[in-house]
Each structure stands twice: as structure tokens, then as C-alpha cells.
Amino acid sequence: MSQSIDLPRVDEFLQELAAIQQTGSKRIALLGSRHVPITHQYLIELMSYALVLAGNHLLTSGATGTNSAAIRGAMRADPNLLTVILPQSLERQPRESRDQLEQVMHLVENPANDTLSLAEASAVCNQEIISRCQQLICFAFHDSHTLLKTCSDAEEQRKLVTLFYFD
Prior knowledge:
Blueprint: H1 10-21, E1 27-32, H2 38-53, E2 57-60, H3 66-77, E3 82-85, H4 95-101, E4 106-108, H5 118-132, E5 135-140, H6 145-156, E6 160-165
Parallel strand pairs: 1-2, 1-5, 2-3, 3-4, 5-6
């Protein structure tokens, strides 16, 4: 009688070991929910500040909540190491986001997605972000379908994924 044990493959262990041992800068995507308590936003801001201060290039999107906190931290550390990729054009962003986004040096707009729903445009945007990063850090709820799909897609692309749940 043979039982199957679900162990990670050797190449996954090697990939994680290499990521831990890498001392140079990385391209790190930081994404998450819009619905984040202010105390959590402060922690995310501190994390992004520390990541950028360590020389990492941070990628995120332009939504309120997690992404806005990531932008604040990165802008404080080194604005040149921040890239913000929007799901749609800048004009489609809420006013409170636009004020912050207008200060970002490396801002990528996607006006071709203006005709899509925000959920559809966000999914496309998240794919672009993970295609550009080496590692993804994500803050989500268990019902954050778009974000959880993004994490799954990043894992399939062999990216290092760290997922934090709010609930």
C-alpha cells in the first residue's frame, strides 16, 4: 500500500533558498485590499519604507488602502525606486488617489482599459505588475478573489509570494 505525500518539489525549495540568500535589490510588488484599517495601513507603509530603503524597487497599483500606504512609504524612502501601474487612466482614479499619484515619478497609466469594469481592469493590471516583479507581497481577505487569483498566477510564474490575511 502506497500513500502519496504532498511535498514541495526540490526546485521550489531551491528557488526559496536563492530568494532568501539574495543580497542585492529585488523588484517587489506590494498589492492588497482597499478596505484596510488605518493601523494596518501604517504597518504596510513602514514595510514599504523599509523595503525601498534597503534598495528594493517597489511596484504597486494606485488604489486606496494597501496600495496608497505602500506608495507613502516608498515615496518617503526613495521616490525613484517606486513604480505605480494603474488599472486605467489617471482621470478614472478617485480624487483622493489622484492627488497622491500626481507626485509619483514612475506612473504607468492604462487608458485602453477605461472601458473595462474596475474589477476587470484591476485583474489585467495585477498581471502586468507580477510580470515585472520577482516577489509579490499581498494583503487580502479570504474573499478577495482578484487578489487571491493574482497570488495564484504569481506562484504559477514561479514568483516568491507572501500572502497576509486581514481576516
